[in-house]
Amino acid sequence: QCKPPLKVKDLFIDIQDGKILMALLEVLSGQKLMHEYKSSTHRIFRLNNIAKALKFLEDSNVKLVSIDAAEIADGNSSLVLGLIWNIILFFQIKELTGNLNRNSSSSSLSSGPSGPESDTSHPSTPSVERNMSVTVKDQRKAIRALLVWVQRKTRKYGVAVQDFASSWRSGLAFLAIIKAIDSTLVDMKQALAKSARENLEDAFSIAQNKLGVPRLLEPEDIMVESPDEQSIVTYVAQFLEHFPELEGEDFTDPDKELPIESTYVHIKDTPSEEEGKILILSESEENMYTVNHERSHPAPPKVHIHDAPE
């Protein structure tokens, strides 16, 4: 989004002179940083550019632990990724869950996550600085807020989302969010007959082509034993920007227990090639769920489903 546009070919290399980092923060914050950039092959100038970017983040109360200019200038992959995650969390996830908060008069997070769009214009205001502080508690609240929103949007289609990891492997959760945005884009009954790979591919393709949500993930990223939580959180947060209306009921206090809904369901036979995937139908066949079953034990004739956070 820079003018002229900047292209990142290798994050760990391109970030080392500070230009990409300063340009990214300028676009996200709306504040001017690039005028302080000094182009040079000398390490001291590269360190100075990065230090200015890190100072900007610190002044915004974005907590950076063990991340210094030298490590970024050397392209330390772990710390570069840690830095980018903190930027994503502060400028995207915290801001978007703050939007949910502003649409809910009953939320207790009024002093919690909030976006930079209204805050950065008055950085010296004490209350604003408190709101912009990304503490560990804030991080958890922001992610929990996103999870609550996802649960509210997917439960109507019989998809139980308990976390930002294994709950997404079948692809049904991604499809349910898309259907909540535009019901004409997804047929959940057809999705139940497809493999996880097909559902994931469908979801990422539909989201990109129909909703304009950038394809940050591939099926292979999700079809693993422990999908990366931060990657899924980052991707799912994008859907908040594309949801047509944010209602007050979309967000409540993440620490408040949700009402428990339960139902008895029958196990439906599943082809052996669909490893770990078992489709279960309620007796009325109105709601359908996908669960993981340990194949070393025989499948029970009935399963009692509790739709609760734990």
TrEMBL record:
SUPFAM superfamilies: Calponin-homology domain, CH-domain. Residues 104-118 have a biased composition (Low complexity). It is a single-pass type IV membrane protein. One of its GO terms (molecular function) is actin filament binding. Keywords: Actin-binding, Membrane, Phosphoprotein, Repeat, Transmembrane, Transmembrane helix. The keyword Amino-acid biosynthesis does not apply. Residues 121-133 have a biased composition (Polar residues). Residues 1-92, 140-244 form the Calponin-homology (CH) domain. GO terms for cellular component: cytoplasm; meiotic nuclear membrane microtubule tethering complex; nuclear outer membrane. GO terms for biological process: nuclear migration. InterPro entries: Actinin_actin-bd_CS, CH_dom, CH_dom_sf, CLMN_CH_second, LINC-complex_assoc. Gene3D superfamilies: Calponin-like domain (1.10.418.10). It is found in: Membrane. It holds the Pfam family CH. This is Calmin. It comes from Merops nubicus.
